[in-house]
Amino acid sequence: MPDTSPTDSPDTRRTLAAKLNHLFHTVHPRDGGEYSFEEVAEALRAAGGPTISATYIWQLRKGIRDNPTKRHLEALAGFFGVPPAYFFDDTAAERIDAELALLTAIRDTHVRQLALRAAGLSPRSLNAITEMIERVRELEGLPDTTEKS
Amino acid sequence: MPDTSPTDSPDTRRTLAAKLNHLFHTVHPRDGGEYSFEEVAEALRAAGGPTISATYIWQLRKGIRDNPTKRHLEALAGFFGVPPAYFFDDTAAERIDAELALLTAIRDTHVRQLALRAAGLSPRSLNAITEMIERVRELEGLPDTTEKS
DNA sequence: CACCGCTATCCATCCCAGTTGACGCCCTGG
DNA sequence: CCAGGGCGTCAACTGGGATGGATAGCGGTG
Prior knowledge:
The structure is a homodimer of 149-residue chains. By secondary structure, chain A is mostly helical. Chain A has helices at 16-26, 37-46, 54-62, 70-80, 90-105, 109-118, 123-139. At the A-B interface, α4, α5, α6 and α7 of A face α4, α5, α6 and α7 of B. Chain A binds a DNA duplex (30 and 30 nucleotides) through residues 36-38, 52-56, 58-59, 62, 65, 67-69, 72.
């Protein structure tokens, strides 16, 4: 099973409302004032894509509603010029990005191939093969540091 | 005004259904077969977070429904171990697709351990060990077909 | 002060995202 | 050849995501 780790606690993670609020406060039209909800709704309508009512934008910013659909997230992200991922919880994304970074560390295609083929083997077989690798490392004069990640 | 450019790109964008389909096809449980919709729904329920009915997952994969809410996207992304951005940004999706098989493989701590230890070995040793893994796969009744790209 | 334009806030409503339950198909074993 | 369970598929229903319209505050103008 892939990742069934318990979803992170409902702590004081930045809520969708907070992020939207930050966007409104940060990106504003040529003069100082913030965008009005009506303006945003209008602009989105003009953009041709999916439209959002001004009232709903207000609800999202206020935190009254916090579970918009994919298309609406895309539209909002598009308007404010941020990637849609901005609205999602970053901890999960960060963890996965870290994993992806680890993958780039494994450049050797042979090692990749090996890992791919090893996936699915029983733990006992994996252990056995790992031990064999350890032995080969020893024979080839590589460090045997069994560091824990 | 920020970015009011049309949200849809000119070319045929990969639909949500296609991406989901790819995830189902690529990341599968220990024994070759794909996850069943029921299994995914069950796992999400067990994870404690927001739940998705098996039927709905089917609808999303089929393309019958294509506008899920934020929480459901999070849940799905969490299950398959990809960042939520996977469902939005196509370029990111392609980048992740390239690593997806390896990414899921590496998630098994034993496999990761093995891969890290294997890094640095001589090509000949790697080949030898890969062949041994192939043999063990055979003994454990795992598919020997190198899955197509 | 009355009036007007504008915007945030509220409320009642609608419609589609999401669920429930049932059906049909393909296995597997008896 | 027929149970029986598992899984994908379908149709109808429900709830909340999303909307439109009404109201209240607020500054500006004559």
